[in-house]
Design brief:
Elements (H helix, E strand, L loop, with lengths): L2 E7 L6 H9 L6 E7 L5 H8 L4 E5 L4 H15 L4 E5 L3 E3 L3 H11 L3 E10 L5 E3 L2 E3 L5 E3 L14 E3 L6 E5 H7 L11 H11 L3 E12 L11 H17 L2 H24 L3 H27 L5 H7 L9 H10 L2
Parallel strand pairs: 1-2, 1-4, 2-3, 6-12
Antiparallel strand pairs: 4-11, 5-12, 6-7, 6-11, 8-9, 10-12
Helix pairs in contact: 6-7, 7-8, 7-9
C-alpha cells in the first residue's frame, strides 16, 4: 500500500522541524507532503534547506485547515496513493505511529479512518483518543485533559477522528469527498467523520499508535478565530449530517448549547466574531442544504445505528450546561 503523509504549515518555522524528523523516522515508507498555507515567516526557506527530499506544495493564500490539507490530499489521490495520513505541524509521531494506523486499515476493508492516541507534549495528558458527537450537537475529543492511565488502551471503533493525527483511506475520500473548505478550521474533521459514518465506513481507534501535540500552537496566532469558527461551524455540522429522524432530539438541545456558547463569547467582549459567525454561517446555509440532500440520499446505515454511535450526554467540558440541565430536571 502506498502511503502519503500530509503536514499543513502556516508560519510554523519554530515548530515544524521535530514534526518532519519524526515522519522521516517512521518504520514504514511514506512520502512526506508539506502544504504551506502562504506563510509569512521563513517556513518555506527552512523546509527547502533542511528537508529537500520532502514534497513541498505552496498555496497562494491561507486556505485554512480544510483547504490546506485538501491541497495535499488531492496531490496524493492524483499520484495513486492508497492511504493519506495527516499530522499537524505542531505534533510529533512515535516511530511506529504510521505502521499501526496502516495495519488497522489493512485489517478491515470497512475502516475508512484510523486515529491514534494523541497526547500532549508532556506525554501523559490526553489531547484526543478519537472524537464523539453528542445528542446536544456538540462534538468533543474523547478523554481530553485526562491523565493517560490506561483507560483508553483498548482498540475500538469510535465516532470520529482528530484531523491532527489520523489516516484516511483514499477509496473512502473519493466516495464521500474531501474536507469541507467552508469550515476553514474547527470541526471539519468531525464533519468528514460524520459523512464517513453515514456512508457506512467505520472509524478505528488504534491505541498503539501514539503522537504528541502542542495544542493550538498555530490557531493561537489569530485572536477570536476559535470563537468565530466554533459558532459558525457547529450549526453547519449539524445541518449537513444529522438525519431528520434525529433532528427533533438534537436540535432543541443544540439551540440551548449554541446560545450558551454565544452568550459566553459576548460576555468576553467577542462581539465581532459572534456577529460574523451568524452572518457568514447564514449565507452558507443554502449551500449546506444542497449538500445535506446528497449526503442523506447516499446514507447507507440505519437511524438506529447513527443513534447508537452518538453520545447521549453532554460533553464533559460543558459544565454550565450541565448545571442548567440539572436545574431544569429537578
Amino acid at each position: 500500500m502506498k502511503v502519503a503523509t500530509v503536514v499543513l504549515n502556516w508560519n510554523g518555522a519554530s515548530i515544524i522541524e521535530p514534526t518532519l524528523r519524526s515522519l522521516k523516522n517512521q518504520t514504514i515508507a511514506t512520502e512526506i507532503v508539506v502544504v504551506d498555507n502562504a506563510s509569512t515567516d521563513n517556513s518555506v526557506e527552512l523546509i527547502e534547506k533542511k528537508f529537500a527530499d520532502v514534497t513541498l506544495l505552496k498555496n497562494r493564500t491561507n486556505l485554512g485547515f480544510a483547504g490546506g490539507v485538501n491541497t495535499g490530499i488531492r496531490y496524493a489521490l492524483d499520484k495513486g496513493f492508497d492511504y493519506v495520513a495527516l499530522l499537524n505541524n505542531d505534533a510529533v509521531a512515535e516511530k511506529n505511529w504510521l505502521k499501526h494506523l496502516v495495519e488497522a486499515l489493512d485489517k478491515d476493508s470497512k475502516v475508512g479512518i484510523a486515529t491514534c492516541k494523541f497526547l500532549r507534549t508532556d506525554k501523559k495528558t490526553i489531547d484526543s483518543t478519537g472524537d464523539f458527537y453528542t445528542i446536544w450537537g456538540l462534538p468533543f475529543p474523547r478523554g481530553r485533559d485526562q491523565e493517560d492511565s490506561g483507560q483508553f488502551d483498548k482498540p475500538e471503533m469510535v465516532f470520529g477522528a482528530s484531523g491532527g493525527a489520523s489516516l484516511y483511506r483514499a477509496k473512502m475520500l473519493k466516495q464521500i469527498g474531501l474536507f469541507d473548505e467552508d469550515f476553514f478550521a474547527y470541526y471539519e474533521d468531525v464533519d468528514i467523520s460524520f459523512r464517513a459514518q453515514l456512508a457506512g465506513w467505520k472509524v478505528a481507534y488504534v491505541t498503539k499508535a501514539e503522537a504528541y501535540h502542542m495544542l493550538g500552537a498555530t490557531n493561537q496566532q489569530v485572536k477570536g478565530l476559535a470563537t468565530y469558527q466554533t459558532l459558525k461551524n457547529l450549526p453547519l455540522l449539524l445541518w449537513k449530517n444529522v438525519p431528520w429522524a434525529l433532528m427533533l432530539k438534537v436540535y432543541p438541545r443544540f439551540v440551548i448549547a449554541w446560545w450558551a456558547i454565544g452568550f459566553s463569547a459576548l460576555h468576553r467582549g467577542q462581539i465581532w466574531p459572534f456577529v460574523k459567525a451568524i452572518v457568514v454561517g447564514g449565507l452558507l446555509w443554502p449551500k449546506k442544504l444542497w449538500q445535506r440532500r446528497k449526503i442523506q440520499k447516499n446514507r447507507q446505515v440505519s437511524i438506529e445505528h447513527i443513534s447508537s454511535i452518538i453520545d447521549h450526554d453532554l460533553p464533559p467540558n460543558a459544565r454550565k450546561l450541565r448545571r442548567l440541565r440539572n436545574f431544569v430536571n429537578r
